Amino acid sequence: MESEVCKATSDKLGSFLRQFPDFPNAFLIGGAADIFVTELADQLQKLKVEPVLLHYLSQLKVLQGLELRMTTSTRLKTCLYSFTSPGAPMYPTRAVRHAAWDALDLLYPVSYLSII
Fold first, then answer.
1. Nearest Cα to 83, choosing from 104, 66, 105?
2. Which domain range does residue 101 map to?
3. Dist. CA 65–CA 47, nearest whole Å
4. Contact 76, 41 (CB under 8 A)
5. Separation between Cα atoms, residue 29 and residue 60, nearest integer Å
6. For 67-107, what is each residue's pLDDT tens digit?
7. Total tally of structural domains belonging to the chain
8. How confident is the model at residue 112 (pLDDT cuts 50, 70, 90)?
């Protein structure tokens, strides 16, 4: 049931992003998905209310499979990593740290074979 809801939400996001035209300078700044994810990462960094942050982190699964520029992907990964350590600058709670790790594992899976 949850995967059906995630797929429907992902389809809505995809159709929303397809409504935007390709920019002439998209090769420099990226397309609509890159701009969306960049703004999302900026907003995540500004969030201070734990339940809202947990909700955002749990819903990042809709970004799975989205084609992003390397810089955008790195920006999102850096943002998520900032929530995984218990100290400064974010001071995230345990629940936020685990939600950030879950989002990282889902969006950027690392297999044992890729380490070798």
1. 104
2. 2-115
3. 25
4. yes
5. 22
6. 889 999 999 999 999 999 988 878 899 999 999 999 999 99
7. 1
8. low
